[in-house]
Design goal:
Blueprint lengths: L7 H23 L10 H16 L6 E2 L2 E2 L6 H11 L4 H27 L6 H10 L2 H7 L5 H18 L6 H14 L3 H15 L1 H4 L3 H4 L3 H25 L1 H16 L3 H5 L3 H9 L3 H17 L7 H14 L14 H14 L4 H14 L16 H14 L7 E5 L9 H8 L6 E3 L2 H10 L5 E7 H7 L3 E10 L2 E8 L2
Helix pairs in contact: 1-4, 1-5, 2-3, 2-21, 3-4, 4-5, 4-6, 4-7, 4-18, 5-18, 5-19, 7-8, 7-9, 8-9, 8-12, 9-17, 12-13, 15-17, 16-18, 20-21
Length: about 500
């Protein structure tokens, strides 16, 4: 079957529209980066890790709460730390890398649409408009979380591996996406590419792409070596410094342990749970995108795309049967696939270009459109955040304190993120982040908490502590929080 590629004029014009749309939405949201205060729990973890490079004098380890931490690699943290050293304000330095990754996500989503439907360049701006219409995409893009970077490298890997089937030099782009992704959060892109190969081999009878043709291609073999080196580099470096604990935590706990099924998770899961997890609150975009992923190999008669729906099924099963906690935020990784697949499916249908464009615009508007206000993205810190920010800074100013730092965090609704405690008020001191009365009892019995004490609790919690702490003095209050000093009752 002969595939007619579009004329150069059509392709250039479609790409120009995609570029202008991308520049507009990125410029619109750029002004929001420094707004408000950081407030997300994981943003405080990022702040702690970013500021630790300088205070620990060590750029080759990631620290959390003054201890070396093996949970996440350093790429995005390095970017923010360099911005801080250059004099950029804290909020902007934290969020600017994520905003940059979001802009690159628009490019890779357009690339994925072009890889899926090379015959119609208008799928490129359509895919860009659809992904910018995802509120969840922008909520992640305007915070210091790692998920947007993961979306970037996953989407780039998907686009590049499809291009590489016909143009082997694209394997080097696959290696770059997989390798950088492993240094940014986790080797998610590597897992995706491996699954693509497995499913490509299993479906070879319908498209003819077999394993042996790749392993005889020098571009593939060279890129495979680059992939292995880049993907394993950070973990091998950590292993060389700290031994097996680096691997057992960074790979065992964070990856294998979290996604290993348990009897409880399997018995509690259903197909409806899996689909509900993937669709979430963005049904207008995700439902048609979900359907498009499964329909495209048959609609386009491109059966080498069969691995895409099979990867989606594997992801759904893996997340739903996982024995550990898996956040709904991880479904952001599918946003580029849904947007590109939906755009490709719409423009593959036998209607006029104008009708297809109208359908894309309508879907975009029903989803909320490509731009968001600061209040929609919740960029303004609430009164609770501002209250403990104020008190954390007050605690940090007590440089002469030589005793314990104790924070009451057993009320989940009023919990102070430990990353915030470490970054703001206990920069050079260990602290006790107490999650229950039992933890307090154990720390007192062991003598871990002794001598003079300062910290932050709610005023109600301080009343509870009056039976074990003596000379409680409230130094400063903000909302229900209190910065206090005390000593252990004899």
């Amino acid at each position: 079957m002969h595939i007619r590629l579009p004329g150069q004029t059509d392709r250039s014009f479609a790409i120009l529209i995609a570029v202008l749309l991308g520049l507009w939405v990125m410029y619109f949201h750029a002004s929001m980066i420094p707004l408000g205060e950081i407030s997300h729990y994981d943003e405080y973890l990022a702040l702690d890790r970013i500021t630790a490079f300088e205070r620990q004098g060590d750029w080759w380890n990631v620290y959390s709460s003054q201890q070396v931490n093996f949970n996440k690699p350093p790429l995005q943290y390095w970017m923010s730390a360099l911005l801080l050293e250059a004099g950029v304000d804290m909020t902007t330095a934290l969020r600017a890398p994520t905003w940059l990754f979001a802009g690159l996500c628009l490019i890779t989503t357009g690339m994925l649409a072009a890889a899926i439907l090379p015959t119609t360049p208008w799928a490129i701006p359509a895919a860009v408009l659809l992904i910018t219409s995802s509120e969840r995409f922008w909520k992640s893009a305007m915070t210091a979380l790692l998920d947007t970077g993961s979306l970037l490298f996953v989407t780039l890997a998907m686009a590049a591996v499809i291009f590489a089937l016909k143009q082997p030099r694209w394997w080097y782009v696959v290696a770059l996406a997989v390798g950088l992704g492993a240094w940014q959060k986790a080797p998610i892109a590597l897992a995706l590419v491996v699954l693509f190969f497995v499913f490509l081999g299993l479906t070879a009878r319908w498209h003819g792409y077999r394993f042996r043709q790749f392993f005889t291609n020098r571009h593939f073999l060279i890129s495979l070596c680059i992939t292995i080196l880049l993907s394993s580099g950070w973990h091998l470096w950590q292993f060389s410094q700290h031994g097996m604990i680096a691997l057992s935590t960074g790979i065992g706990d964070q990856m294998v342990g979290r996604f290993t099924p348990s009897a409880e998770s399997i018995s509690a899961s259903s197909v409806g749970d899996m689909i509900g997890h993937v669709i979430g609150s963005e049904g207008v975009l995700r439902w048609p995108g979900f359907i498009a992923v499964f329909a495209l190999p048959f609609l386009l008669k491109r059966y080498e795309l069969l691995p895409l729906p099979l990867i989606l099924l594997t992801y759904m099963a893996g997340v739903e049967f996982a024995g550990g906690f898996v956040s709904h935020r991880y479904t952001l990784l599918l946003t580029g696939l849904f947007a590109a697949s939906l755009a490709a499916a719409l423009f593959a249908l036998d209607y006029s270009v104008k009708a297809k464009a109208i359908a894309v615009v309508v879907l975009s508007l029903l989803s909320g459109g490509p731009v968001n206000s600061p209040s929609q993205l919740r960029l303004y810190a609430n009164e609770k955040d501002l209250a403990y920010h104020k008190l954390l800074i007050a605690v940090s100013e007590n440089e002469s304190h030589e005793g314990a730092y104790v924070y009451c965090n057993w009320n989940r609704s009023w919990r102070i993120p430990p990353g915030g405690i470490s970054a703001f008020s206990s920069i050079e001191h260990p602290f006790f982040d107490l999650r229950s009365h039992e933890e307090l009892t154990e720390a007192l019995a062991s003598g871990a908490i002794s001598g003079p004490i300062i910290g932050i609790c709610t005023q109600e919690q301080l009343q509870e502590l009056s039976t074990v702490f003596a000379d409680i003095e409230i130094k400063q209050t903000a909302q229900i929080y209190a910065y206090y000093s005390a000593r252990v009752m004899p």
